[in-house]
Backbone:
């Protein structure tokens, strides 16, 4: 897998920030992660309301188990 240099640099900056700020990084990341969970839940709720949506959700859940 090929990654560009700027991506690698960003990962290194984030790792350094996490290492140097063990008490701060979680408060910066938590709102982002919570927003991602809310968006995913909205998606699944809307998908469940579509024809065949509940079956699609079951298929996705089966893929997670593999």
Residues:
């Amino acid at each position: 897998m090929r990654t560009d240099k700027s991506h690698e640099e960003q990962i290194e900056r984030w790792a350094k920030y996490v290492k140097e700020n063990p008490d701060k990084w979680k408060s910066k990341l938590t709102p982002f992660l919570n927003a991602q969970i809310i968006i995913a839940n909205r998606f699944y709720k809307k998908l469940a309301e579509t024809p065949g949506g509940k079956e699609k959700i079951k298929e996705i859940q089966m893929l997670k188990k593999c």
